[in-house]
Amino acid sequence: MQHTIEKFDRYTLLTVAEEKLATTISPLLKAEIVRLFHEEGIKNLIIDMASVKYVDSSGLSAILVANRLANEAEGALVLVGVTDHVMKLISISKLDNILTIVPTVAEGVDAIFLHQIERDLNTEEE
């Protein structure tokens, strides 16, 4: 799987450099995501999907695994650069209500920071 990983203080950026996120690539993506959360100990993940033109159910499954792991780590998953075709599949699957999707990496970083502030405020209230 063609991808890059950039680590920052509060988040990790995973850029997928594949046109199709289907059965041949999705298991590799899922394995990389699991490794990042379990071995690297990340909490917040931004996945840049600007190069991805097609996603099948296995690709959506990998994204849902990332979302679950981020929630378990008390962090956040943000998808950025989602193309129109991929967004249609996400909407049809009703995942647009579950996933955080923003247009750019900069907005993804803002979403991560906002999520952390909200989580910190909720912790203080308890």
Number of strands: 7
Low-confidence runs (pLDDT<50, min 5 residues)? none
| CATH structural class | Alpha Beta
How is the main sheet built? 5 strands, mixed
Order of helices and strands: EEEHEEHEHEH
CATH topology-level name:
Transcription Regulator spoIIAA
Amino- and carboxy-terminal Cα gap: 43 Å
Q: Helicity level, as a percent range?
A: 40-55%
Tally of DSSP helical segments: 4
Tally of structural domains: 1
Oligomer: single chain
Whole-angstrom Rg:
14 Å
Give me the side-by-side strand order of the main sheet.
1-2-4-6-7
| Structural class by secondary-structure content | alpha/beta
Shape: globular
Give the DSSP E fraction (strand runs of 2 or more residues).
15-25%
Instruction: Provide the residue-averaged pLDDT.
Output: 95
CATH architecture: 2-Layer Sandwich
What does this structure look like?
This protein has one domain: STAS domain (Transcription Regulator spoIIAA, 2-Layer Sandwich), CATH 3.30.750.24. Helices cover 47% and strands 20% of the residues. It contains 4 helices and 7 strands, in the order βββαββαβαβα. The chain has helices spanning 26-38, 57-72, 84-92, 105-125; strands spanning 3-7, 12-16, 20-21, 45-48, 54-55, 77-80, 100-102. A 5-stranded mixed β-sheet has the order 1-2-4-6-7. A two-stranded parallel sheet has the order 3-5.
Can I get a quick summary?
With 126 residues, the protein is α/β, with parallel strands linked by helices. The protein is 47% helix and 20% strand. The termini are far apart.
Brief descriptors of the model:
126 residues; alpha/beta; Transcription Regulator spoIIAA; five-stranded mixed beta sheet; two-stranded parallel ribbon; globular
